[in-house]
């Protein structure tokens, strides 16, 4: 701040009033931009046009007699029930449809964020911004989904010659595609707009990091079993709803300045409600193989299948209660699925850390003086407004599975062994046989001959 005061004495900085009153870094950008001599200058971002009210006319007429507060409550409630019903429908339709929905949501979120950038900077006539943004999205998706196909459909890939070639050189092809986009960006640089173009280059890559990487994690979670997809997403939805309900009826104490409508009452109410909901939902879903079995590709039928013998994680076990709970409940033991204990960690993260994804999005929207990312869903804003917390959750679940749940996968090891040459397979066979004999699991050759 001292540096800014001295610099301000030399050349006053004209800033526009905003809700956040501007940070030191923003002031520096405005000062530096004003002295850069660019035709439009980098100081003062154009405001993003406000999105129009897209509430269906039938709801506007039905709720016309209510105050704006209660009207918004009913609109959000009705649309929330509609979205939950749609969520149940896509779960019923199976894992393939779920993956397609994840891809659609990813593309829509990317489009909403990139559109904000274009709305801010379109008056500068930056060449190839949108074209390059979508090209980079294509490159990153090709890389991530190619990795997924190679990992999950290994036998199918090895069976088809074109797929085997693409799989073998997948990373090189991905890098070549990205390098092409990188060169196109460099060639598109225009004098006097260098800074803005690099701003937008960074904008695109951060968006790819936030949106595409997280959606890739969501699909990986889905392959572990649909329960790892449904329970975390449902916990975030439950926390969002219950925090809103508790805040609407009991909220008095502000939680964070970035989101003035968020209250401590809503935060705490949402936390306890989500933990209870997570335990109950996990109990119901753990009894169904359709939800707990990994999503695998059947090479004989060329279809996805969800069928297995449930692991110990999804088998009821007796747990001894601590003494203080025993005196309170009168029970000495309780029968639970082990996954229900894990669900406490998932629901706690969804309630405590998940909202920070929403706070991050709120800060982003405040920076550009917009209320919502888009007006796709009346009363809720854009798709990104509904999924801002889900992306943090997807990363946590993926890390949680890798750290505490997933072990070696024998089926994948066998698939990779079968792809080797015969001499390599024999070498591994002899090495494994010698190892097991040394450990005493197989009889020695002399014992067999005797």
TrEMBL record:
Reaction catalysis annotation: 1,2-di-(5Z,8Z,11Z,14Z)-eicosatetraenoyl-sn-glycero-3-phosphate + CTP + H(+) = 1,2-di-(5Z,8Z,11Z,14Z-eicosatetraenoyl)-sn-glycero-3-cytidine-5'-diphosphate + diphosphate; 1-octadecanoyl-2-(4Z,7Z,10Z,13Z,16Z,19Z-docosahexaenoyl)-sn-glycero-3-phosphate + CTP + H(+) = 1-octadecanoyl-2-(4Z,7Z,10Z,13Z,16Z,19Z-docosahexaenoyl)-sn-glycero-3-cytidine-5'-diphosphate + diphosphate; 1,2-di-(9Z-octadecenoyl)-sn-glycero-3-phosphate + CTP + H(+) = 1,2-di-(9Z-octadecenoyl)-sn-glycero-3-cytidine-5'-diphosphate + diphosphate; 1-octadecanoyl-2-(9Z-octadecenoyl)-sn-glycero-3-phosphate + CTP + H(+) = 1-octadecanoyl-2-(9Z-octadecenoyl)-sn-glycero-3-cytidine-5'-diphosphate + diphosphate
Metabolic or biological pathway: Lipid metabolism; Phospholipid metabolism; CDP-diacylglycerol biosynthesis; CDP-diacylglycerol from sn-glycerol 3-phosphate: step 3/3
InterPro entries assigned to the protein according to its UniProt record, in alphabetical order: PC_trans, PC_Trfase_euk
Top-level taxon in the UniProt lineage: Eukaryota
The protein's name in its UniProt record: Phosphatidate cytidylyltransferase
Biased composition (Basic and acidic residues): 18-41
Keywords linked to the UniProt accession: Lipid biosynthesis, Lipid metabolism, Membrane, Nucleotidyltransferase, Phospholipid biosynthesis, Phospholipid metabolism, Transferase, Transmembrane, Transmembrane helix
EC number from the UniProt entry: 2.7.7.41
Major enzyme class: transferase
Regions crossing the membrane: 133-157, 169-190, 197-219, 225-251, 263-285, 339-361
């Amino acid at each position: 701040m001292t540096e800014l005061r001295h610099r301000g004495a030399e050349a006053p900085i004209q800033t526009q009033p905003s809700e956040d009153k501007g940070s030191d870094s923003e002031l520096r950008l405005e000062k530096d931009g004003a002295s850069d001599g660019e035709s439009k200058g980098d100081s003062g971002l154009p405001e993003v046009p406000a999105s129009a009210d897209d509430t269906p006319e039938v709801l506007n007429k039905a709720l016309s007699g209510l105050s704006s507060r209660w009207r918004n409550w009913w609109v959000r409630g009705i649309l929330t029930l509609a979205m939950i019903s749609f969520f149940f429908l896509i779960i019923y339709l199976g894992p393939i449809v779920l993956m397609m929905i994840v891809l659609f949501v990813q593309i829509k979120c990317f489009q909403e964020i990139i559109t904000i950038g274009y709305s801010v900077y379109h008056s500068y006539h930056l060449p190839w911004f949108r074209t390059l943004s979508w090209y980079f999205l294509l490159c990153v998706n090709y890389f991530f989904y190619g990795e997924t196909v190679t990992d999950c459909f290994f036998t199918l890939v090895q069976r088809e010659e074109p797929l085997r070639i693409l799989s073998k050189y997948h990373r090189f092809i991905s890098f070549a595609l990205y390098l092409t986009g990188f060169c196109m960006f460099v060639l598109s640089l225009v004098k006097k707009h260098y800074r803005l173009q690099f701003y937008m280059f960074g904008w695109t890559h951060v968006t790819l990091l936030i949106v595409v990487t997280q959606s890739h994690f969501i699909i990986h979670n889905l392959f572990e079993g649909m329960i790892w997809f449904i329970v975390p997403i449902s916990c975030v939805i439950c926390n969002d709803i219950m925090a809103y309900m508790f805040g609407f009826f009991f909220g008095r104490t502000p939680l964070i300045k970035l989101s003035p409508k968020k209250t401590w009452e809503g935060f705490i109410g949402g936390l306890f409600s989500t933990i209870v909901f997570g335990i109950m939902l996990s109990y119901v879903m753990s009894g169904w193989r359709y939800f707990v079995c990994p999503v695998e590709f059947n090479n004989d039928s060329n279809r996805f299948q969800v069928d297995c013998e449930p692991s110990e994680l999804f088998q009821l076990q007796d747990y001894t209660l601590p003494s203080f709970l025993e005196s309170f409940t009168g029970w000495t033991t309780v029968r639970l699925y082990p996954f229900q204990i894990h669900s406490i960690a998932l629901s706690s993260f969804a309630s405590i850390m998940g909202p920070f994804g929403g706070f991050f999005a709120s800060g982003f929207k405040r920076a550009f003086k917009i209320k919502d990312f888009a007006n796709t869903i009346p009363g809720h804003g854009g798709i990104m407004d509904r999924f801002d917390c889900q992306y943090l959750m997807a990363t946590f679940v993926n890390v949680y599975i890798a750290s505490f749940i997933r072990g070696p996968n024998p089926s994948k090891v066998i698939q990779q062994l079968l792809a080797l040459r015969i001499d390599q397979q024999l070498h591994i066979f002899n090495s494994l046989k010698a190892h097991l004999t040394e450990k005493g699991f197989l009889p020695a050759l002399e014992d067999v001959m005797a």
